[in-house]
Predict the structure.
Amino acid sequence: MIKLLSSKKFIIILIFSLVIVPQLVVAFTIINTSTIRISAQVGTGTPSNGGGGGGGGGGSSSTSTVPISMPTTVNFSGMAYPSSKVTILRNGSVVITTVADQQARFSTSINNLDTGTYNFSVYGEDSNGVKSLSFSFPVYVTAGTTVNIGGIFLSPTINIDKSEVKQGDDLIVYGQTIPNTNLNIVFHSDQEILKNTKTDITGLYKYTMDTTPLEYGDHIVKSKTIVNEEVGAVSPELPFIVGLVSKKKDNAVTGCGTLRGDLNCDKKVNLVDFSIMAYWYKRVSPPEKIDLNGDGKISLVDFSIMAFNWTG
Amino acid sequence: MKNNLKKIIALFIFALCLFINNKADASFISIKPSSDSLSKDEQFYIDVNLNTEGKTINGIEGSISFSSDNISFVRAEEGNSIVNLWIDKPALSDGVIKFSGIIPNGFSGVIDPFNPDNKLPGLIIRLIFETKKEGDCNIAISKAITTLNDGLGTVDNITPSSIKISIQNTSNPYIYKTPNDTAPELSASVIRDPNIENNKYVLIFDAKDKQTGIKEVLIKEGSRPWKKIESPYLLEDQSRHSIITVQATNYSGSSIAINIDALPYKLISFTNIIILIFILAGLLFIIKKYYEKYK
């Protein structure tokens, strides 16, 4: 046994197991890393230790200054959709909304914060009122600092014209992201099918899919923005069925029921909806509409589905 | 034979490494006490922190048990918590501290803007205890789950953890106070929805305090006495003709109050006034007729 343990091959395998395997596990866990840049500056007063206040973005930076009372600011910047509404939430409440320019760029700031941990989140709404996925940034903010959260790239929005499509009929996939960019439309079936399209000057895209190669049954579709030959952002996934008849999708995207967790049908998921669900928590026979996962009770799982769709 | 044994051992180590790494991927809760050395009659706190190990979670539920022979639970402070909305505010129930809440849009670790690549654990709650008698005392996360921010509410179990605290046979009476120089934040509104209390008027509110947390929220409806409430709260005055005052107080005694206006009384419409005049005129006419007849 001692001989075995001292053999070269065994040592190589041992090193591989202890060093390489953890790296592989981490490498496969951290997929689709974003290019979001977060940095901070302390105050903007007279520097006491060299260096001036740097610009935003571009990795982390810190500058020591004379501790004078300076405003605490968090700056947000990134890409949404041309002329679209971008909403910033602080700890679940809407704190500011801004409008992206024609090139889809947005930037905004939140001032006068106390020291503490804040959970900021950002989402956008396209020209059809369809919401992007939310990005969240739990940040520790200290008084007198400026925190820059840059390089935010909101996910493309996605919609389809049919909830069920007759095999062989066309399925139209459409949405919005940044203008004049390439997109992958990915159909998850038994085999993944990848199609390419491009957005127009307004960031809109539309792809007509011939469903002949898709098998009968459940499928999902999503879109991926391609920037510099890399995946920039991925849309939410939309389910559809390939069957014997075609059924139009209920495109009342702003109607009640399309945004899971919008219990009072006001096109938002916020404190009101949370309160309605909290009322039914631990009560018997909650209404079907409130029981989001349909298990006959209101539990943390239902609140979690609501928290995912939170709009503030 | 030798070679086979080698292969078996190598495979075993490989599998063990994979297992260890998978275990490391589970979120875990750490418990950090304010002091390792405690005396009798001394208040101390433990910080309950969540490390998501890179996962994005949006819900947490758990219970914390402790040796009630040696220590007693004083209060929970949820100021600075990563949990934005409590489903069950941390409270003692059947000898166990239970809590559950959500983080809208998810949490994957606190970003230190001076070192953005390093994500820090997030504080769930600070629990204040008081020592009673000497001896060793265990504080343990007896049960906890998180839900992933995946739109499905996928449940993810948390690796259990515990700490042991030693209480010496000396007395050190001490009352713990979290420094607090901020006022609480409060938002409240009155809603009606068919899914709550049969469409009756209900008050909903969100009270937060960045440092110590909210001690209590009180309501005053018109001339009615102050009453401690939780959200959602069924209003006593369903006519909504009372001014509502809602007051939130933090553990350091700072308060904030907001008023919600009463609904105005409806003015009598022009048509109703005309009808009333006709009725009065008719009554006067009848009275006059009777008066003349019996005169």
Chain A has three domains: 37-153, 159-248, 254-312.
